[in-house]
Amino acid sequence: MSETSMTVVVWTAATLITFPFLWLVGDLLWHGWHQLSLSFLLFAPQDAGREGGIGPILLSTALIVGVCMTAVMPIGIGTALFLSEYTRNDHLLGRLIRGSLDVLAGVPSIVFGLFGNALFCQALGLGFSILSGGLTLACMVLPILIRTVEESFRAIAHEQRVSAAALGISKRATIQYILLPAAIPGLLVGSILGLGRAMAETAALIFTSGYVDRMPTSLMDSGRALSIHIYDLAMNVAGGNPNAYATALVLVGLLIIINLSASWIAEKWTSFNQLPT
Amino acid sequence: MISFSNNTLSHSNSDIVFLWSLRGLALLAGSLLALVFAFLIRESWPALEQIGLLRMFTDPGWFPTEDSYRLTPIIFGTIWATCGSVLLAAPLGILSALFCHFYAPPFLSRWYRRMIELLAGIPSVVFGFWGLVVLVPIIGAWQPPGPSLLAGILILTLMILPTIMLIAHSSISQVPVTYIHSATALGLSRWSLIWHVVLPTSRTGLYTGIFLGLARALGETMAVLMVCGNVVQHPSHIFDPIRTLTANIALEMGFALGHHRSALFISGLLLLGLVICFVSMAEVLRHRSKYAVT
Amino acid sequence: MAILNLLRPFLSPSSRIGFMCIVGLLVVTSLAQAQEGKLVITGSSTMAPLLLEIGKRFEAIYPHTRIDVQTGGSSRGIVDTINGLADIGMASRALKPQEEHLHGSVVARDGIGIILHQSNPIQELTNSQIQGIYTGKLTNWKQVGGRDAPITVVHKAQGRSTLELFLQYFKLSIRDIHAHVVIGDNEHGIKTVAGNANAIGYVSIGTAQYDATHGVSIRLLPLLQIPASIDTVRAGTFPLSRPLTLVTKSRPTGLTKTFIEFAQSAQVHDLILKQYFVPLQQ
Would you call B8 helix, strand, or coil by DSSP? Predict the structure, then answer.
């Protein structure tokens, strides 16, 4: 494997991936660009979504993702901390939890949707609501977040913990002031992956946060998410294609904004926290 | 060496409270799978009881409205689609991560990573839709019918690539910079550095990435539903349509009553069984490599 | 940088706890809002867009009501109605014999037509030819007078009413069918046929008619020489159609009754036509 041949291979791989991506986004832009306007973003859908806008749907999506991330952060970071700081590699409980999370990551989204329906909508009595949808999504995002955050905690140099203990700092304080800030980049990767997964989910939300496209007035209201709207317009409603493309473009645009802000925060945080070496 | 055993050596109250709250959160996360499993068992119980798991492999075909429940071609459909996509996506993903770190100029590297992050968030519906209206006709023009195992593998690869690439990227960036400096100082070429130093060091992260990608491919529903053709058969070549377990559930769940519905939940259980197999294999691999020197 | 300095106190653990308390409070207060006059309607995704629009018009006329429409498939609609989780179930078919104890109210009809790709020269197929194609006896278009190309058979997934009506009309059994592609929703079928010049499939007439007139490259075939269009289904001359039914546990009363009567009235005929279904004859 000579140096030049591997360089060629790597550059080919990178181009190979860029090509379908540009094709996909180009396709979305081509078909959906002329549908976009400020009124599209603000007004409610009419005529089963073929006309009007996606205002209430944007709000519902934001609320669902908000509930999901709020629920997932404490449980996710807590579990990742437990797994990385308090268990050895061969600790039984740790391996069981890690194994169960890995299996959870492979459960299909439709099973999560039906499970969320049975647990949150029926057993806990929340009904078709943004809350049920967000909590179901939290179950789906949890494995991704925990695995990435755990990896980033494990990658922190051992000397940090040893030095902290030598200085007499309590374990909690070590975690809070030394380890957590150092793991922020990994946490951000996990959050972005998890957020991406949450915003992209369709099957799980059809049965939990529902289909209603009215402006939600509380977390207990049913609300349609962007991905469900795209699915409905593309696959269910005759003539929904143009607005489906436009909604997909809006989703891609939102993702760009979220990812850019997350990267910006990560850069500022690490530059702020890193001591000059 | 500091021991990371459960009973912390510190007697401070905040530490003990902290430990117990962490334990609680971890147990909550761990019990999720048990809940999902219990749910699947409850929903598939009528079929398990009255049809039995054996018939899922021995019945003449998948005709649930006529009391015939053979799932074998569908299970193999899932395995082919998943393995194919992981075999394609893993090298591409790792090569992309290496591209970002070692080959691309800084400006290109940053934007390439942002592009992949964007790809990670595109809904499966959009991938499926694009696959249906763009990819499938192209494959169909080459070799009918169009919706096929190949289409499924290509779309799945596109979907799991970002996961693998981003996690690989993150773990490669955590390789201590002293290793890279030392290797360069010793005169190693770029590829030698990657192959002999960087990849072995970031091995666990790479496995995590590949594993999460595999899990996503196994559980993907909407996109495979739209591009795979959904015909219940063993594919004789990659242009044949197949049906996966997830597409099976999605396709028929809304219209299934009684035993048909329970049988669909059994296919969910079988999928869980497949995932557990893959996880155990990954555990064995990971267990060996966690003791590697870092 | 200064912003981060400002944010630092808010990122401390105590602030995080405080923030979560506020969120919890918001959740609890929103839980306290009760809804008067609310109807939950679940079921067929084919009917969901139509019921959504009917519900909006109903809410405009009766301001203190809420009509929530959810999807999940015809069977889910029926199961939810039986369990009391939904007030009304949407089923894109007639009630089956084992469901006779439920009450069904038809609101519209939907025809089922055969579609081909626009470039396919075939203008018409006899019933026996269609049977031959779907059972795999006829595999090439030239055998029915078309070009020399293999036929791609597009078929619906099991359990769906469109499939059952199709099998019933053409006197086929499910095990006889040799399909190349199995699809779920109507638009899935239409897009598959539009992407393959040699495909044949069957979908809802309304959806196909809308798409064909809006530039999607498909064409509806006549059946028994009767053209497939909304008008022939409305006139009752087209042989293959299914009823779109609203299912209730028992005879509807109260708000449910008002809504179902509204959905069956002439006030929503324009909505039904806009979704390309066929309103009932009065």
Answer: coil
